[in-house]
Structure formats: structure tokens, C-alpha cells
Amino acid sequence: MHRTLADDLDRLPELLQSARDFAAREVSGLADRPVAHLGKAPDREPLPTVGTGAEGALARFAERWAPGFSGSAGPRYLGFVTGGATPAALTGDWLTSAYDQNASGGGDSSASALERETLGWLRELFGLGEEHSGAFVTGATVSSTVGLAIAREWLGERQGVSVSREGVGALGPIDVLSGTPHSSITKALSVLGIGRDRLRSVPVLSGNREAIDVEQLAAALDALGGRPAIVVANAGTVNTVDFDDLRAIAALKERYDFWLHVDAAFGGFAALSPSYAHLVEGLDAADSVCVDLHKWLNVPYDAAVQFTRRRDLQVRVFHNASPYLGLPTGDPDFLHLTPENSRRLRALPSWFALTAYGREGHREIVERNVALARHLGERIEQEPRLRLLAPVRLNVVCFTLAEDSDEGAGACTGAGAGAGAGASKERVHEFARAIAASGEAVVTPTFYGGSHALRAAFSNWRTSEADTSRVFDALKRHSGVGRS
User: Fold this and answer.
1) Which of 153, 201, 363, 439 has its CA 20 to 30 A from that of 45?
2) What does the angle CA 356 – CA 358 – CA 361 come to, to the nearest 5 degrees?
3) 294, 303 contact by CB (below 8 A)
């Protein structure tokens, strides 16, 4: 054993205290540090020949790398859909590393039982029945990949073939129908050998909507002539948080044969609030469900769950056949349910968060974030240089700069007014960079309704009214960027 490693072990309590003190300073300063760092990263250094020990490594990290990290866990990082880490979740995450449990198997530890308890809590939180079984994965992309892999096996069952044994080629062309799918769906189709081009776009509702037109979906299914298909429904689109009518889609199963996968990556958390739970009515009818936890549950990356009604098919796809592991039992180890054979105890931060704050604590986060998003939307509507592109349905504000010409500035008012007009891509992206460079906030560019636009997504437990005002002030201050 290298001497510095032995020394570190002897001084472990002191080293952990140093790391604790450093982390506490970083976390407590999140609200005041720049939200983004756009400067040049440090130049690469060669691999050390002789190590510095853990204390030296911490000092070197604090000097070279920490200053350039973003404040993505803080209250004004509204890019993508990014949560933070609640104190309880952070505590659980640290203990996850300390215990270093491999949660894929359960023969010698209670870790897997803790994970099953957490999955049961989450299933209840999202209004799913006991018919749904779950497993932890890294994120929404892998969750949807697992769900669609089970759907692929279901299609094989319909045709009397085993895709897990014979390959996807045994199925022939596969029909995947969706209205406004997330980009991770096409990525999953590529990984699974189904093919990106097999995703067929179904028209959405008129009137500035992203939700699928259920009548058009019925017509698309009818055109298949009885051939089974996969339908991907959305419980919260990324641009405007629109929800497909899950009950109406599920009702189509009485007439058509299809697997229903619901992408509820962050929209599933609407179930926590009596005011918004109606948006996810029918989620329990899904054959597979995707939910991200490092978004609105505010646990550290990476954490998501997938649920399905057909665990038997899931085991058929993902079981790991090995003499030293044994065959899957009636309650299979997690290594038989997901692509991973080995992984950390991903459930522990979620267990801590749910135990610490319960359903009501997380409901408060959801409802506060929604209220703040709506407040920002109202202020954007009142600002002549900005234009709201869609109603703020939940926690995402989709907006853009007013037209490039001075005459057009402020000419369009109201959510979605003048869709298709607006500022150029260059100016919108320059606007986003200026906001990030200010250190005040981060919002992400997108394209919606014919307009280059920006998204502000509220999902951090820290975000307050004061933070929202600072975000709006930054938007207003930089809204003239790129004007001649």
C-alpha cells in the first residue's frame, strides 16, 4: 500500500472534516456565487507520478477547478430542468459513498430492501398501483430506454418471437407513435435497434398546444390494420409542459393493440399537488413510466426510476445469466431489471429526502416553483422587449425577444401571439449568453412555434420570489442585446 494511502486512512476523520467544511462553504454560498462560468477552463496537467494525498488533492481542486464550476445546484439556474440537492438528499448521497453498497444484488445486505421500500413510496407518490414494479436508473433517457426495451419484447410476444433471443430483426418494422416526444425517445429507439426513423409524428391539438390529438392518434392506430404498436405519451413536454390526455389515450386500448409508455420525467410530480394532479390522471394505465428524480425531487445526480406492469418481460430482456449469480427468482435482484450489473445505492438520497420532508414537503416545493414560474411569465408579458410564447402551464416559462425591428418591439402581446415571428436565432442565443455571462441566471435556448426562444425551468427547492425578481431583472437588462 502506498504510504500516502495509509496516512489518509489513519487521518480519515480529519480529511472528511476538511471535505465537509469545504463543501459547506460551497453549498452555503450558492445563492451568491455566479450561476455560470463561461471563462476558459484550466489547462490539462500530466498525470501525477507521486500523489499528494487526499488533503493535497482537495487543496488542488479548490485552487484549480472549483472556481469554474457552475452554480447549477443554486436557485437561479433555470436551464434545462435542473433540481438541486436538499440537505437530506445530500446527506443520503454522502452516506451512499461511505457505505459503497452495490445495490444490484441483495443476498448480503439490506440495501436492496431499502431500495424496494423507496420504490414503493415513489409509486404511491405518483399515483401508480401495485401492478407497477420499479427500478432505479441513471436518468430519464435510460428510464425510457428500459421501458421501450420492454415494449419491444411485448411486440415480440404478440408475434410469437423472443426479441431478447432472436434480435430486433425478428420483428420487422416497428411503429412508434407520439405527438411531441422528447429527444431521448429517438435516442432510445436508436440504441434499441428500432431506429430513429420509426418514430411517426402524430398531429397535436390546435391552439398553441403540444399535446397529441387523440382522434388523430386513433386514426393512425386504425391505419395500422391491427398491427401492434408503441405509443409514447407525454406528461409534461419540455418547452411548454403540455400534457397528453392519458385517460383518453389509455381508453383507445379497448379498440387497438399498443404498448403505452409515458414520459413523465418531471411532469409526473404534478401528482403531488391537488391543484395539478388532474394533469396526470390516467398515468396508472401506462405499461411503462419514466420519472426523473434529480429534477423535481431535488436529489443529486444521477437518479431516476422506471416503472412497468410487465416485470416478467423486463426480466426476460435484462436478466444476467451467470453461474455465480443464479437465475432470477420471483423477486429478482435489480441486476436482472436494468442494463447495469453493478451500481451504487442510488435510492438512499431519495429515501432520506422522502423521510425528511414527506409528501407535504415536496408538494410545497412543486407548488412554490409553479407559482414562481407563473409570476415570471406575468412579468415577461408586461415587458415590451420580451414575448411570452405559451401559457405557463406548470413550471416552465417559454419566451423570446420581441421582433428585431424597433417597430415590432412590443407589437405582439399575450402568450403565443404572433407565433412564428420574433428575434433571430443569433440574437436569442446571444441573449442567453449575456444572461449567463452576467452570473445572475441561466436559461436555455429552444425552438417553439416557429420562434427561436428561451426556457426558464423552475424545479430547485431553493428558488424564491427574490431569486425570480433577480432573474427577471437580468432578462430585462440584457433584452436589448444585438440591437443596432
Assistant:
1) 439
2) 95
3) yes
